[in-house]
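Section handout 9: paired folding examples.
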Amino acid sequence: MDKIILFDGECNFCDSSVQFILRREKGALYTFAALQSNAGQVLLKKYRVPLTIDSLVLLDGNRCYYKSSAALRISKNLKGGWPLLSCLLIVPKPLRDYIYNIVAKNRYKWFGKKDSCIVPPPEIKKRFL
């Protein structure tokens, strides 16, 4: 359980992103938890994630990444051309996060919101905390 992705379990875009990662990751690298879940809340406190973070978080060993840094680091471990996106890590974080924040701020308006977190299918349920 070295790499954990915390995501907004009520967000349709975030749910689609988790499904995207599951289909494209190189092996079963990631474990997932909704930010709203008990496990997610425990991890947020353990890693001292700021309360202002309400979207994507990547926990990788002892390191914690937020927003665009999390997304681009996740892309490194996907099949196809997706690892090329990680070269965007050279772009200054404030600029990357500015663009990320526009999507994050509008994600419910653009993609909708669920009433509750997803229940993963049995074949991948063990990958969710």
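Moving on to protein 2 of 2.
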Amino acid sequence: MHVTMLGYDVELDDELVEASPDELVSQLAEYERGERQLFDLPVRLPDSFTGDVMRAMLDIPYGETRTYGEIADAVDSHPVPVGQACGRNPVPLVVPCHRVVGADSLGGFSAAGGVDLKRALLAHERDGDTEQSALDAYR
């Protein structure tokens, strides 16, 4: 499924979301308008390392970030494979891979729009704060 979020096109594998396409689009629109902080959409996670990382990402609250290293500690791994798993996230936005950042940078973002979209999503969740203040708030 192709959706637009904050002016960027994002591809989601809606077959992994156990809700109707209309419900998915509705909740994404509520998030974009600032009316929703938590998605009420069950997601089928892969039974793999990527699924473990996705599960850890689902635990990151709205408006907060975790580093690749913190996620690596949570799943008993290392930051580089965590970053690779984030890049394989088939349902960005719903599983908030944008909330995973580098220790000293935003890190990457594989969705269309790349780091610009990641920056926009973090700013959206931080009421328009800059990239640096969003990172500083969680160190």
